[in-house]
Structure formats: structure tokens, C-alpha cells
Design brief:
Elements (H helix, E strand, L loop, with lengths): L5 E5 L6 H15 L9 E5 L5 H7 L10 E5 L16 H6 L2 E6 L2 H6 L4 H13 L3 E6 L3 H5 L3 H13 L4 H6 L1 E4 L13 H19 L1 H6 L1 E5 L7 H5 L6 E4 L6 H17 L1
Parallel strand pairs: 1-2, 1-8, 2-3, 3-4, 4-5, 5-6, 6-7, 7-8
Helix pairs in contact: 1-12, 5-7, 7-9
The structure holds 2-phosphoglycolic acid (PGA).
């Protein structure tokens, strides 16, 4: 089956409101040149304080802004209550989001997020009508000691536990080797494809072959305009989660353009 590619920009803790608006506008005017069918699914995940700013630009008047979906970078699994500093799925939806990134390695590493918390978040996101982008990935130490596949397989099984096959098939997974994030070192495309195929087989095991065939699995870790074509030409890589190169409209647009070239020639 052919899966629509996704190019998602994770802005992390970067860009003030005006900067966010201007990068978003740069992506929007690029997207105006293409139909929604030609474009990959384009997603941008700004910081919480810029969500309403960018969702005003991503208006629904057919101007091109409606071709970009907005994502949260994190959320809480409860709908409201005494959780200082947290944000609920309903709040993300209210601010214009249709996706939410969860389980990013920076959240796991610096904020002690566990597989169990990520599973609760995935369930809350799906129950709220949004789509989770579930991140997984190994450290360099894990890769060197040969536990990459078992580690990722257990992260995915835990994240998807108790979720229906139907919900799994519309979810998104991002494979991000931690040693490749923000380092300029991309994972070899064939190796990223091998791991992503392995993730697809884990999805098949827990949710069936149809869900494994539909779920979109992205690669993330130092994706640049110069690396995306080779990554996108792999059989199982359905797109990219882009950090650094999504902070400037020019480089992010070039990644979208190079993705479309591969899709056209495929
Ligand atoms: P990077 O970040 O592209 O800057 O490596 C990717 C990510 O962490 O999602």
C-alpha cells in the first residue's frame, strides 16, 4: 500500500512568537504552490506559547495555511486538574493542534518520562481525536552493545499496549537514534530502513498486518535537505521528524521539495 509521506518539524524550545510566525509563513507560502495531494503531510510542532500565533496563520481559507498541520510537543494524559506546568489534549486541540509528539528522547532523558507515561499519553491523544507521533530510539551505548532491536521493540510494545488496531493504524511512529539527534550524524539510510522494518513487524505482531501496512513510520536524527532523498527512497521510511533543519523555512521547504521529488519518481 502507498503511505502518504510526512514531513514534521519539531521546533523544540526555540523561536519566539514573531520568529515562529515568520518561519511558519515561509512554509505556508511555499505550500501554496502545491495541491494537498502533491504535498506530503506537513506538520509543525511549535512551543506552546506560539500555538495560537501559528494556528491563526494556518487558517482554513484555502490560502495554503490549511496544508500545514500543527502538533504539540508533549501533553498530559489527564484532561484537566492540579498538574502545574502541564497541558491537556483538549487544550492542544483548542489551540489548533491535530497531532502531538510523545516520548521524544529529550523528554525521556531530561524529564524522566517512562514507557508507561507514554502509553497513557498515546491513549489520551487518540481518545481526544488527535494523532500521536510516538518517538523511540536507542543510545549509542545500546547500539554498541547490540540491544538496539530489543530496546526499540520493547518501547513500541509498551507505547501501544491496550490500543486498538484501528487507532494504531492511524498513529505515527518516529525512529530517532539518540546518537543522531542534533549531532549532524545521520543514521545510514539502509540501517534506518532495517530498524523501521523491524518496528513495522512489531506493529504487525501487536495490531495485525493491516495496521502495520498503514502506520506511518518516520526517521529522525540530523535530517537535512541533502539527506532526505536517500532516506525517502527506502522502502519503509515514510517521512522525517526534523529538528534543527526545521527552524528555517528555506531548509524545511527544501526537505519538503526533495520529498516530493522522490514521491514523484517512485
Ligand atoms: P535534529 O532533531 O533534526 O536536530 O537531529 C530531530 C529530533 O529530535 O526530532
Amino acid at each position: 500500500m502507498s503511505r502518504k509521506p510526512i514531513i514534521a518539524g519539531n521546533w523544540k524550545m526555540n523561536l519566539l512568537k514573531n520568529e515562529a510566525k515568520s518561519v511558519f509563513e515561509g512554509v505556508k507560502s511555499f505550500c501554496e504552490n502545491y495541491t494537498a495531494q502533491e504535498l506530503p503531510t506537513v506538520i509543525i510542532a511549535p512551543v506552546f506559547t506560539s500555538l495560537s500565533e501559528v494556528s491563526t496563520v494556518a487558517c482554513d481559507c484555502g490560502c495554503g495555511g490549511n496544508k500545514i498541520s500543527i502538533s504539540g510537543q508533549n501533553c498530559h494524559w489527564e484532561s484537566s486538574g492540579a498538574y502545574t506546568g502541564e497541558i491537556s489534549v483538549e487544550m492542544l486541540k483548542d489551540a489548533g493542534c491535530s497531532y502531538c509528539i510523545i516520548g521524544h528522547s529529550e523528554r525521556r532523558q531530561y524529564f524522566s518520562e517512562t514507557d508507561e507515561m507514554i502509553n497513557k499519553k498515546a491513549k489520551a491523544i487518540l481518545a481526544g481525536g488527535l494523532i500521536p507521533i510516538i518517538c523511540c530510539g536507542e543510545t549509542l551505548e545500546q547500539r554498541e552493545s547490540g540491544v538496539t532491536d530489543s530496546h526499540i521493540s520493547s518501547q513500541i510494545k509498551a507505547a501501544l499496549s491496550g490500543i486498538s488496531s484501528e487507532d494504531i493504524s492511524k498513529s505515527v511512529i518516529a525512529y530517532e537514534p539518540i546518537w543522531a539527534i542534533g549531532t549532524g550524524k545521520t543514521c545510514d539510510s539502509a540501517e534506518a530502513n532495517r530498524v523501521i522494518k523491524m518496528i513495522r513487524s512489531v506493529v504487525s505482531e501487536v495490531a495485525g498486518a493491516d495496521a502495520a501496512d498503514s502506520i506511518r513510520i518516520l526517521y529522525g536524527g540530523s535530517v537535512k535537505p541533502s539527506t532526505i532523498a536517500e532516506q525517502m527512497s527506502q522502502s519503509d521510511i515514510d517521512g522525517a521528524l526534523v529538528g534543527g533543519a526545521s527552524l528555517k523555512a528555506d531548509s524545511f521547504n527544501e526537505i519538503i521539495a526533495n520529498t516530493m521529488k522522490v514521491a514523484v519518481s517512485a
